[in-house]
UniProtKB/TrEMBL annotation:
Description of how the protein assembles with itself and partners: Homohexamer; trimer of dimers.
Phylogenetic placement of the source organism: Bacteria, Bacillati, Bacillota, Bacilli, Bacillales
SMART domains referenced in this protein's UniProt entry, alphabetically: Alpha-L-AF_C
Domain Alpha-L-arabinofuranosidase C-terminal: 296-489
Broadest EC class assigned to this enzyme: hydrolase
Protein name from the UniProt record: non-reducing end alpha-L-arabinofuranosidase
Pfam family, one: Alpha-L-AF_C
């Protein structure tokens, strides 16, 4: 019997914030340097130092927001080291990530240029762990003040006459860990203090994001909401999908066994429980849902590729990662009332990257293709789904085999995204679009990304081994959509009335 779902087209439940499709670029490994920034004198084609092939690929994704400069790096980053003539900028050691030299050539001006070229919102993470209130306050003044002041004048001296628009600002990062090993009570007080001096200059209104919990630390959320909820616009949450043990061995990105595939899917689906439970705490203090849940670090984290710097967090990206991305995006859609932004870690060459580069070469990962397929949901109306899908069984353990989310855009087109996480079994689905007239006359099409082995991936020798293809496994039958999902597949279906 087919799996069944009812998509309630006539009962939209709010808007899927486009910022759910956000990204994260840290000064870590080859994400910024080589991945995004090559310098103006590089033989690699670039726009004012930013490599053009990566720029074009990211523009295609319609990136809505980009988080920078970290991550753990943010709480050791002093922004004044990254402005002015590049050959005069302070060189420092990146103590968090590989002990390499950070030359500060990519700083505030370069990041804001990148966001302008991408036509995305900048999301800057300030330094609470090793910085000062004055330093954070002056950074916001430098970027956003249009009048006469030491910081605004300094910005003009450095070549930027007009202030930038800066909407999103994070007051610290992982202050429970690399951002200072703080107790939640202590950080809540520090947050209240620091955010006071993140000023709104002119018509620039800053959306202030407090550093939230690690995974299931519900006490952290409780303390932050009860003590500082009134002073924040967003509260972050970090959770990584690690099939093994974070410290003893995370598991390989390639050549992994079946049980690690299953465990990866199980841990990816755990994100739904985390959002549900953190949101319940937030609801207690913020029933109007004014404060957004900002999941500004998520994605897969495996052991680094053999032979690479262990501090660079470089890993390959397979069809398994494509499924993890699709699962997360479906979950985020369902929690669109509370989840207002997420930022996958990370954009280029680090963890669950969109893009990998090697010298002048660039490739798009399976995760990139999922984001490109799912971007149709940005700013669309969420459509409720009631489903009775079967289970994915492996050695006595069970997971839901298929996840689904649906939306309707401003032009009336309906998009349905599906993930079949079973590495062996197909899924036959019946999707009823309740409240939609004349499905028989609609134009139905789709895209699919799938593979014939669990660790199928793209290489620089074969950059298109895993890529989307037209989806032919959908048809209108008896007033509903009949869908056939192959194993290990991510699909987006378009229904144009």
């Amino acid at each position: 019997m087919a799996h069944q779902a009812i998509i309630n087209v006539d009962m939209p439940k709010g808007i899927i914030n486009r910022n759910i499709y956000g990204h994260f670029a840290e000064h870590l490994g080859r994400c910024i340097y080589e991945g995004i920034w090559v310098g103006e004198d590089s033989p690699i084609s670039n726009t004012k130092g930013i490599r053009n092939d990566v720029l074009a690929a990211l523009k295609q994704l319609q990136i809505p927001v980009l988080r920078w400069p970290g991550g753990c790096f943010a709480d050791e980053y002093h922004w004044k080291d990254g402005i002015g003539p590049r050959d005069e900028r302070k060189r420092m050691v990146n103590t968090n990530w590989g002990g390499v030299i950070e030359n500060n050539h990519f700083g505030t001006h370069e990041f804001m240029l990148l966001c302008e070229l991408l036509e995305c919102e900048p999301y800057i993470c300030g330094n609470v762990g090793s910085g000062t209130v004055q330093e954070m306050s002056e950074w916001v003044e430098y970027m956003t003040f249009d009048g006469e002041s030491p910081m605004a004048d300094w910005r003009r001296d450095n070549g930027r006459a007009e202030p930038w628009k800066l909407k999103y600002f994070g007051v610290g990062n992982e202050n429970w860990g690399c951002g200072g090993n703080m107790r939640p009570e202590y950080y809540a007080d520090l947050y209240r203090q620091y955010q006071t001096y993140v000023r709104n200059y002119g018509d620039n209104k800053v959306y202030k994001i407090a550093g939230g919990a690690n995974t299931d630390d519900y006490n952290w959320t409780e303390v932050l909401m009860s003590n500082a909820g009134a002073y924040m616009d967003g509260l972050s949450l970090h959770y990584y999908t690690v099939p093994g043990d974070f410290f003893l061995g995370k598991g390989s990105a390639l050549g992994f066994p079946e049980d690690e595939w299953f465990m990866t899917m199980k841990k990816a689906l755990y994100m739904d429980e985390l959002i549900t439970k953190h949101s319940a705490i937030m609801d207690k203090y913020d029933p109007e849902k004014r404060v957004g849940l900002i999941i500004d670090e998520w994605g897969t984290w495996y052991d680094v590729e053999p032979g690479t710097n262990p501090g660079f967090l470089y890993q390959q990206n397979t069809i398994r990662d494509a499924l993890v991305a699709g699962l997360h995006l479906n979950i985020f859609h369902h929690h669109a009332d509370r989840v207002q932004m997420t930022n996958i870690a990370q954009t280029v060459n680090v963890l669950q990257a969109m893009i990998l580069t090697e010298g002048q070469d660039m490739l798009l990962t399976p995760t990139y293709h999922v984001f490109n397929m799912f971007k149709v949901h940005q700013d669309a109306e969420l459509l409720p789904v009631a489903s009775s899908f079967g289970t994915y069984e492996y050695e006595g353990h069970r997971l839901p085999q298929v996840t689904v989310s649906a939306s309707r855009n401003s032009a009336g087109a309906i998009h349905i995204s599906l993930c079949n996480i079973d590495h062996q079994q197909k899924a036959d689905l019946k999707l009823e679009l309740r409240g939609m007239d004349a499905l028989h006359s609609a134009v139905v099409s789709g895209s699919i990304i799938t593979a014939d082995r669990m660790d199928a991936h793209n290489t620089f020798e074969h950059p298109n081994a895993v890529q989307p293809a037209p989806f032919t496994g959908v048809a209108v039958e008896q007033g509903a959509l009949a869908v056939q999902l192959p194993p290990m597949s991510v699909v987006t279906i378009s229904v144009q009335p």
